[in-house]
Prior knowledge:
Elements: E1 2-18, E2 24-43, E3 48-50, H1 59-69, E4 77-82, H2 93-103, H3 112-119, E5 132-136, E6 140-143, E7 150-155, H4 163-173, H5 179-193, H6 211-217, H7 221-230, E8 235-238, E9 245-249, H8 252-262, E10 268-272
Parallel strand pairs: 3-4
Antiparallel strand pairs: 1-2, 2-4, 2-5, 5-6, 7-9, 7-10, 8-9
Helix pairs in contact: 1-2, 4-6
Amino acid sequence: MHLHAPAKLNLCLYLGARRDDGLHELCSLFEPLALADLITVAEAESDEVICPGVEGENLAARALVGLRARGWRRPPLRVEIEKRVPVAAGLGGGSGDAAAILRLAAGEVGDLQGLAAELGADVPSQLRPSLALVRGAGERVEPLPEPAPHAALLLPGGGGLSTAAVFAEADRLGIGREPKELEELATRLREVAGAGASPLAYPELLVNDLAAPARSLRPAIGDGLDELGEAGAPVVLLSGSGPTAVGLFPDLAAARAAAATIDRDDAIVCAAGKAP
């Protein structure tokens, strides 16, 4: 069995206060990308998750352990992950892999949403990859209509930026919005994205509060954002906690033309807004 685990793009990320559990309130708009990890699943003598290039236990392995702990009775599985989504790049690659494993047990294990939330903030939204308004610490997911076609040009910048470190830097910088403002932003996002428009139609809302702390930790992120702007990207943003700089374009042809202008080895062009 072959599964696709699409990357996710944070079209915006508004950061609220840090909660008593150490997590932060968020208001974000997630969309899937055509870029996806390929996961091969086969029966085996014992459960095994293999992910070349990723050391130690990953989220997919934890997802499988979680399913077994909840009584999932399928035969043991060998799971092999071919990483295509850059690691630790703010694109939710590990969360997508975990969600793909959880989808195997749909209808067979109760409260997959709860298990997803235990695994990580981005996992619940990836159980059904689609454009979604995401609230809370990632556990409140409101699917929205598929947006008009558009494309993305990604500059991962080598990945490897710790999400925890970026959030800690945000706390140090005193970044955090009031609950009332987050509610107002959610209403605006629901209205514009709920109409099925391309995100290019509401660039003023595509704000990432983690951009400043991410750039504080890795100033070179600014170079990628500048390159995308100079290449003509109508919208330039940082995905998630970074370091991936993203340019949004009306179509793949425009994104490919910009990629040729930038001429960077790490550039990735893909369709956006719909899972593969």
